[in-house]
Design brief:
The complex is a heterodimer of chains A (about 350) and B (about 150). Chain A has 16 helices and four strands. Chain A has about 350 residues and is mainly alpha-helical. In chain A, helix 13 packs across helix 16. Chain A is globular and about 65 Å long. Chain B has two helices and ten strands, in the order ααββββββββββ. Chain B has a six-stranded antiparallel β-sheet, with no helix packed on it. A four-stranded antiparallel β-sheet of chain B has the order 5-6-7-8, with no helix packed on it. The N and C termini of chain B lie far apart (about 60 Å). The chains are: A mainly alpha (about 350), B alpha+beta (about 150). At the A-B interface, helix 8, helix 9 and helix 13 of A face strand 2 and strand 3 of B.
Chain lengths: ~350, ~150
């Protein structure tokens, strides 16, 4: 790669420019019928970068206290020039980021890209996905509106169901027994400091592993990939990536401008939970499931069992590369593929039911 | 003692010594941090009764949420005109319940939990009844009293 940077002796004397340039010049992307799924990781990264940019802008005016949070978001949306747009971009991009991450994760799962030696890439990816959900959960409360207040109350109460550490975890998350201004300040701290720090570290490792190991070719496309010439990353695949980012930016801008994110009513801790209350769409399938679990199953509270079951599925999902060992030996593991489709069907049906079935029964 | 020292080499002794020191150092840093992140318990004055509403404020078949210490309570006037008071904290996942005049009983919007007018969990995921308070009318005030 004969760029100005590579030629400059100033940089060569201070940084292994040639080695890096050589690495990227040789980087290729396998071509086969599933290549399109390779764009989703970059797309998720794009939305994450939008989140960082718009989040920093929101920080200029946002005030994280129960007394001022709602009013400060109202101020951003009504008084600050383009404030409505920045807040709407942040909310829409958060949702699109979770959606892109979800599609990326499931596509990686079905292509069995978690096979040796990419187990750690999968684990870091799943942890990043959980962090994205944590960003969503902590960010949801920040405008301090009614919906967010009760969603946070339920969400943090769920943590207390865990055996032994449950109550301490609830205190840690809420900053006290109840959801109050202390909770808001805490979740704000997690949202803008702790989670970004963890995400940066994990994202760095995830991207490094992807660079070092290259793209995985799914078992079902190996023959096709062997026949077709891989595409050089520079400039061809990168250009395609950038076109994808441009389309994503267009979709995001249109959504943010045409459907500005609502603010709702200011939270009142001494008001009843309003009808139609529900969390963000990516938590909806769990929320809906909790509605259908009976109050008691054998000797246990139904919700305890439900929440523990979701937790176990999460751990299973994280450990998939270590449980599904057969593809390495050339075998096929249909059960894992079936599990993936069942999970998608379950999430889709429960989410749809939550939207379609009236909330007031 | 001499036997103990003769069994371990100088190098492994130093390894244990340094390793133990590192663990102690990490512990002395982590302990105050862990203690710091757990919020201190704020003592609350124990309140056993509270004015939940005024006579004539509620029409039959209606209800209102009132403040009982730092938790919400619910005062209900039954269709027959009686007053009942309960904790408004749903026994499922702690949402605040409300009175539904169309159902003629108490309902939680979060996960569709239903409670009858004695606080008993009728339907949906709540595993336990609502805590019931005794109701006393003193002059114009309706008091909710925690049952001991």
């Amino acid at each position: 790669m004969s760029t100005t940077v590579a030629k400059s002796s100033f940089w060569r004397e201070r940084f292994p420019v040639d080695a890096v340039a050589h690495f990227f010049a040789k980087k290729t992307v396998p071509m086969h019928r599933h290549t399109i799924w390779y764009y989703l990781g970059g797309m998720t990264l794009f939305f994450f970068l939008i989140q960082v940019g718009s989040g920093v802008l929101l920080l200029l005016y946002y005030r994280p206290t129960a007394e001022a949070a709602f009013e400060s978001v109202q101020f951003i949306m009504t008084k600050v020039q383009f404030g409505w747009l920045i807040r709407s971009l942040h909310s829409w991009s958060a949702n699109l980021m979770v959606a892109a991450a979800m599609i990326h994760m499931f596509s990686v799962f079905f292509m069995k890209s978690y096979r040796k030696p990419r187990e750690i890439t999968w684990v870091t990816g799943v942890l990043l996905f959980f962090l994205a959900l944590a960003f969503g959960f902590t960010g949801y409360l920040l405008p301090w509106n009614t919906l967010a207040y009760f969603a946070t109350k339920v969400g943090t109460e769920i943590a207390s169901v865990l055996p032994i550490v449950g109550h301490d975890l609830l205190l840690f998350l809420r900053g006290g027994e109840e959801v109050t201004g202390a909770t808001l300040t805490r979740l704000f701290g997690f949202h803008v400091a702790v989670l970004p720090m963890l995400t940066t570290a994990l994202l760095g490792l995830h991207l490094l592993l992807v660079q070092v190991q290259g793209m995985s070719v799914p078992p079902q496309a190996e023959a096709q990939a062997a026949q077709r010439k891989p595409m050089p990353f520079f400039p061809y695949f990168l250009m395609r990536d950038l076109v994808g980012w441009l389309v994503a930016l267009g979709v995001l801008a249109a959504l943010a401008a045409l459907f500005p994110w609502e603010l709702g009513e200011k939270a009142d801790p001494f008001a009843s939970a309003p009808p139609g209350i529900k969390p963000e769409w990516y938590f909806l399938f769990m929320f809906q499931t909790l509605k259908y679990i009976p109050a008691k199953i054998l000797f246990m509270d139904g919700e305890v069992l439900g929440i523990l079951a979701f937790g176990l599925v999460g751990v299973f999902w994280l450990l998939v590369p270590f449980l599904d060992r057969r593809p390495e030996a050339g075998g096929r593991t249909r059960w894992f593929t079936v599990f993936g489709w069942v999970a998608i069907a379950f999430i889709a049906v429960m989410t749809l039911v939550a939207y379609v079935v009236p909330q007031t029964f | 003692m001499a036997n103990f020292f003769s069994r371990i080499s100088r190098r492994s002794f130093l390894d244990y010594f340094l390793g133990g020191g590192a663990v102690a150092l990490a512990g002395s840093i982590l302990f105050p941090v862990l203690k710091y992140i757990m919020p201190p318990a704020i003592p609350q004055a124990v309140q056993n009764d509270v004015v939940a509403g005024k006579v004539g404020e509620l029409a039959p078949n209606s209800g209102k949420v009132f403040r009982f210490g730092n938790k919400p309570g619910i005062l209900v006037r039954t269709p027959e005109g009686d007053y009942r008071a309960f904790s408004a904290v749903c026994t499922h996942l702690q949402c605040t319940v409300q009175y539904r005049d169309d159902f003629k009983h108490i309902w939680c919007a979060c996960h569709n939990g239903h409670f009858d007018l004695t606080g008993r969990n009728l339907e949906g995921p709540p595993p336990r009844p609502l805590e019931e308070y005794r109701v006393e009318i003193r002059g114009e005030d309706i008091f909710a009293i925690r049952q001991t």
